[in-house]
Amino acid sequence: MVKYKRFFNKVEKREVPDLPDKYNHRDIEPKWQKIWKERDIFKTKTDLRRKKFYCLEMFPYPSGKIHMGHVRNYAIGDVIARYMRMNGYNVLHPMGWDAFGLPAENAAIKHGVHPAKWTYENIEYMKNQLEKLGLSYDWQRELATCHPEYYKWNQWFFLKLYERGLAYRKASFVNWCPSCETVLANEQVIDGKCWRCDSQVIQKELEQWFFKITAYAEELLKDLDSLKGWPERVITMQKNWIGRSEGAEVRFRIDGVNEDILIFTTRPDTLWGCTFVCLAPNHPLSERLVNKKEILQELKSYYGDPLIKPGYFTGYYAINPVNGRKVPVYVANFVLMEYGTGAIMSVPAHDQRDFDFAKKYNLPIEIVIVPDKDRIPQVLESAYEDEGYLINSGIFSGLPSQKAREEIIKYLEEKGIGSRKINYRLRDWGISRQRYWGTPIPIIYCDRCGIVPVPEKDLPVILPEDVKFTGRGGSPLLESEEFLKTKCPVCNSMARRETDTMDTFVDSSWYFLAYCLLENGRKLDFLSDLEPLSYWMPVDQYIGGIEHAVLHLLYSRFFTKVMRDLGIINFSEPFINLLTQGMVCMETLKCPSHDWLFPSEVKNDRCIHCGSPVERGRVEKMSKSKKNIVDPDDMIDKYGADTIRLFSLFAAPPEKDLEWSSAGVEGIYRFLNRLWNFVHQQKTVIKDLLPNTPPSFDHPLLRLTHRTIKRVTVDIEKEFHFNTAIAGLMEFLNELQDYMSGKTSITDQDRYSLRFAVENLLLLISPFAPHIAEELWSAIGNKFSILEHPWPSWNEELARESEYELVIQINGKLRSKIMIPEGLSDDLIRERALSEPRIRELISDSKIKNIVVAKKRLVNIVTGE
Questions:
Q1: For 508, phi and psi rounded to 5 degrees?
Q2: pLDDT bracket for residue 249 (50, 70, 90)
Q3: Cα gap 720→77, rounded to integer Å
Q4: Cα angle: 550, vertex 554, 555; to 5 degrees
Q5: Residue 538 near residue 573 (C-beta atoms within 8 A)
Q6: Among candidate residues 383, 163, 396, the one with its CA nearest the CA of residue 275
Q7: Three-state SS string across 739-761, please?
Q8: DSSP E strand boundaries for 383-518
Q9: Are strands 52-57 and 90-92 parallel, antiparallel or unpaired?
Q10: Residue % of the chain over a pLDDT of 90
Q11: Backbone φ, ψ for residue 732 (5° rounding)
């Protein structure tokens, strides 16, 4: 309908839509999602004139349906993206799909559906779910890592790494099912057995491809100190994974053989306590020293298994270079070739693993470190692994451990029997996977030329479609003759392709760069204009689960440094700020007869199937196996996306675990209904006023509005305290309702101040609940879109809270006085009074019959039976 309005001496005509009496999310949310899409409001362009903000959530695996963990992650990112856009930033907020991976192949084996079909159908369904949440993604930059246009660049990066000696091939152990005759991923091994046939899984040595991430170990470690916007917990996890350790390399001569065993130790102060030496099963010396190859193969089959520690005496002895003692040489499965030198000196008195091994094989235990020089134990019940003082250590006896280590390293170097050495726990990244649904490794094997990389002009090497999925035998790519057989690009003779595919962590190690280049339908290309990369990168805010705190983030950092060295980018770290959100959890329900139950299967604390009492278990991460899950689609249909978004942001700070609560969701839904009803009721009061015009006079609502703007803004910017920001908006609405309900007449100042308050309430809530904010913004006569309006600013003088003295009585007697801000509602005044420590003490367990607020200056708490 057409409305006329009067503001001072101006008259203008504008359209103001009718506002339905009832809040109906099923109409509102699709309406605004359609408008956003039609008007390309979230489309982003590179604009060197504007300050940029790149907001990114970790992209999902297209498993079929989003879960509440996704909802929370993406809601957090969307609030940040919308907030920064309203603050004038050119915001890049993209989404895509981590689309390669084992589940698609498992689905092919179980259900006979091709991985590509399964994956793309899941993408379509999940994208529709994300769109229902109203997320502000630039979908024109959407990518899927299983598309040849994307994985071509996986292959291109592989070739560049290969050229630099950072991609190489060597023998390594894999999980092997003897029955299925196939390699298994870690997640396909359940309690040491094959997921399909339940056969015992063994370790088998195969040729594998690796990326030499250890070449960047020191830089990866050192640069962690520059990541001031990362959680300390993640920094610590990465440092521990890289595991820099200083120590010594020492040569032990094998008695009677012209060979040395080179060992690495971080505790050279325990050298005199070495009573045996252990080699890794795949150490080159193990092959030469062990005659019984079946024994060595058995040790290899349990390689690295922490629960099984078999060892085999080689029959040889090594000479400890510091005391000339002959010590037996064992091959042990717990020694890893990938760490140090693949050989260790074993000091059972001061290492618990060595202590257990020595006890098992009846080997000597020599004490060389004690906590107290005057109290030397004769027998150890367990290894003493702490620092102390050296004994039985020649000229170094009596020295404290730390000083002794330095002196002993100097001694080793002077004698020419050892040297100072820095090692890393970090191992090179094994990228080979004996699976189909992944990026083909661009390598050709020629009988004449050996290993030949695929020429760049022939990329991408496309996955074939003529494969069968049986779950047995080697990689399904071995069954495709068209793929397997090719010609050598060097000599043109017949050759074969590599049939291993790449680890899917390769896909996710650079996807954040791809989004920058996919502008306006542009083809992904790292060989043309890279200006968008230099504009958008690095990512300003990255958001994802703590489960990716090590490998994904480490590999992304590695790729970034390699790309810098390739001249593609000019920065060293991909993510400036990192937020690791907590999990979404729910109480578990269990029936003695029917195992885990959904909440809908419980009535009056009893199982609806058998009537048995239900055991309420711990609050745990939502999982299908324990049936403590909530379907986002059901919640969106019942309550709306705005409610689900708000609840996921309000129930806990982003970094903490969130406990799902049906009552909490209902409470948020009621709040949105109150917001709708309040604006509907006040529309007639503010409808004829000029939009977006702040009053030029002082007013209680004006001060309240400025205080709320400040509170919400500070809460968002201070470690994303969305929960307290939303609480501030709830209080703001309560105060507005209280103020207007107490008015018997409305002045012009009331109307102008109320319009200013309502507009700012909608602006402040719009990043959290964008659909209802857009609808109400439009309903009070503002132009599309609320997202294009600047984030409100506050006046510090008006935002300052005026205080007064509140008198608190108990049963009419003065008991306390406190200072509280002006303008609080009666409910908040009661809450402040009850929270005062002296009042809490005096009331104790007394029954409160009533709390009277008199003129908002005095509170009388009435107690009694």
A1: -90, 5
A2: very high
A3: 10
A4: 125
A5: yes
A6: 383
A7: HHHCCCCCCHHHHHHHHHHHHHH
A8: 389-390, 418-424, 429-430, 432-433, 443-446, 450-453, 485-487, 494-497, 501-502
A9: parallel
A10: 67
A11: -60, -45
Helical axes 662-686 vs 632-639, angle rounded to 10°: 30
Phi, psi angles (nearest 5°) of residue 600: -70, -15
Report d(CA 31, CA 771) in Å as an integer: 9
Asked whether the CA dihedral 345, 350, 351, 352 is positive or negative, the reply is positive
Q: Contact 146/99 with Cβ under 8 angstroms?
A: yes
**Ranges 308-322, 507-521, 750-764: which has the least confidence:** 308-322
At 539, list the tokens: 């990512």
Asked whether the beta carbons of 89 and 791 are under 8 A apart, the reply is no
What is the spatial distance between Cα 104 and Cα 851, in angstroms, rounded to a whole number? 62
Kindly state the tokens that stand for 323. Answer: 């005391």
| Residue 599 DSSP one-character state | G
User: Which residue is listed with tokens 């020599």?
Assistant: 366
Tokens of 825: 């509602």
Q: Tell me if 52 sits within 8 A of 89, measured CB to CB.
A: yes
Nearest to 173 by CA among 149, 202, 204: 204
561: CB partners within 8 A, 6+ apart: 216, 219, 220, 572
> From CA 439, how far away is CA 152, in angstroms rounded?
8
Rounded to an integer, what distance in angstroms lies between the CA atom of residue 58 and that of residue 729? 29
Phi, psi of 262 (to 5 degrees): -95, 120
Q: What share of the chain is helix, strand, coil (3-state, %, to 5)?
A: 40, 25, 40
Range list of β-strands (E), 551-607: 575-581, 584-591, 595-597, 602-603, 606-607
Q: CA 286, 290, 296: angle at the middle one, nearest 5?
A: 75
Please check whether residue 679 is in contact with residue 758, taking contact to mean a CB–CB distance below 8 angstroms. Answer: yes
How far, in Å, CA of 32 to CA of 39, rounded?
A: 10
Among the residues of 133-274, which ranges form H helices? 148-163, 217-222, 232-242
Q: Pick the closest to residue 249 from 260, 262, 259 (CA basis).
A: 262
DSSP 304: T
| Residue 823 phi, psi dihedral angles, 5° rounding | 90, 5
The CA radius of gyration of the chain, in Å to the nearest whole number, is 34
Question: 102-111 and 115-132 helices cross at what angle (nearest 10)?
Answer: 120
Q: Which residues pair with 203 in a beta bridge?
A: 175
Residues, the chain, total? 865
Strands 276-279, 575-581: parallel, antiparallel or unpaired by DSSP?
unpaired
Give yes or no for residue 518 having a pLDDT over 90. yes
Strand ranges in 275-325 using DSSP code E only, listed in sequence order? 276-279, 311-319
Q: 18: pLDDT confidence band, cut at 50, 70 and 90? A: low
End-to-end CA distance of the chain: 58
Looking at residue 427, its amino acid is R
Contact assessment for residue 577 and residue 553, using Cβ atoms and an 8 Å cutoff = no
What distances in angstroms separate CA 528 from CA 43, 525, 627, 674, one per listed residue?
22, 6, 50, 54
In the numeric block, which tokens belong to residue 510? 């650079």
Angstrom distances, CA of residue 380 to CA of 99, 349, 372, 399: 54, 7, 14, 21
Which residue's entry shows tokens 């509280």?
820
Flag whether pLDDT at 418 surpasses 70. Answer: yes
List all residues 6 or more positions away from 667 whose beta carbon is below 8 Å from its beta carbon.
Answer: none
**d(C-alpha 327, C-alpha 531), whole Å:** 63
| pLDDT score for 768 | 98
